[in-house]
Amino acid sequence: MRLIEKYGHGGDLLTAHQVFNKASGEFLDFSANINPLGPPAKVLDLLKERLETIVHYPDPAHRVLKQKLSERNRVSDDQILIGNGAAECISLILLGLQPKTVGLIYPCFSEYEQLSVAFGAKINSCYGKLELDFKPDISELNLLLLESDLVFIGHPNNPTGVLYTMEELVQIAEQAKKTNTYLVIDEAFIDFLPKQLHITLLQKLERYRHVLIVRSMTKIYAIPGLRLGYVLAHPELIGKLQAKQVTWSVNQMALIAGEAVLNEREYEDETIALVKEQRNYVKQSIEEQLGWMVFPGQANFLLIRITDELAAAELQWKLGERGILIRSCAMYQGLTSQDFRIAIRTKKENDCLLQALKEVAHEGIQP
Ligand SMILES: Cc1ncc(COP(=O)(O)O)c(C=O)c1O
Question: Which of 10, 128, 129, 139 makes a 20 to 30 Å CA pair with 266?
């Protein structure tokens, strides 16, 4: 059953408004994993100031933002493609590389499958194993690489939060090189992690010419309505993706915001510290006060399994009536009707959620 995930994702406030009959602005949204600090204030002011520049076309080559991203990531301009969100980047990878078979490790972000199927690819799959903290068995992953033209890996993975070690990433990339498989590493949530966990093959792209790294700027800078993401890969691959991109698909305001947010280092540090502290707090509170299973992982969200007689859809309904949105994970391959995901937000918002969870769980066990 899809209550508020009518289009397959969290963060759909219009559907929530229609289902729960509350104004969209009234909801506390834990169903999308967006920076709870909101966009940096300076960037919002700048957008207002520059609004009139929408009378011009945006730079079709995204030159200024590309230059800034190349400095930040220590790669050259021609190793970057900027897209209308990481979602457009994923679609351009599929359009540009034309894989006939795509390998997925379930559970994973639903757009990988949806877009692959839409573009005519056949899906191969294996599952993250509960006993391996949702990582796949290495021999199954090797088979997936062997049988697929392109494999997606979430790092950290949505919705499990699985983060691979550098040794694992190198092993997977080496295997993909042997099997001639494109490896897409989706790092949409990596910016929320403490710096020592920013484990990435970015500086090894020269050796791994078949690896593409996808990043999102919508989550960390809280601009999902503006849309901005990028791909990092060998120039030859970037060229193939660029050839499929609609000119001006990245709009003027998104480019202005993207150039400005990259100066906001303090905001990034504050976000990382908040997520680290609140993640531990929420995880511990749920485990201790509700006894539910919180899966290990490393991201600005938690995947939780309800261990009482309460389905995630029922919990979602009862919280929705209270103006709180969570993401039911029942529709993810490899998860169950007892599973749900919550974003990590501010202490005050997290306390509201924890209180509501306790109330609903308590109601659920009344005779
Ligand atoms: C794993 C993952 N990758 C990519 C995206 C798309 O992000 P964007 O908003 O940048 O298109 C999402 C959005 O939820 C996601 O969860």
Answer: 10
Q: How far apart are CA 126 and CA 158, in angstroms?
A: 16
* pLDDT tens sequence across 128-161: 999 999 999 999 999 999 999 999 999 999 999 9
d(CA 216, ligand 1 centre) in Å: 6
Omega of the bond leading into 99 within 30 degrees of 0 (cis) = no
pTM here is 0.96
Instruction: List the structure tokens of 183.
Output: 């490896």
Q: CA angle, 344 as apex, 356 and 158 as ends, to 5°? A: 115
Count Cα neighbours of 201 within 13 Å in the Cβ-side half-sphere: 31
CB atoms closer than 10 angstroms to residue 206: 9
Taking the chain, what is the end-to-end CA distance rounded to the nearest angstrom? 26
| pLDDT band (50, 70, 90) for residue 62 | very high
DSSP 261: H
Please tell me the distance between residue 218's alpha carbon and the centre of ligand 1 in angstroms.
8
Query: Tokens standing for 333?
Result: 């391959």
8 Å CB contact between 206 and 172: no
- State the DSSP code for 199: -
Domains and CATH numbers, the chain: 13-31+266-364 (3.90.1150.10), 41-261 (3.40.640.10)
What's the gap in Å between 32 CA and the centre of ligand 1? Answer: 10
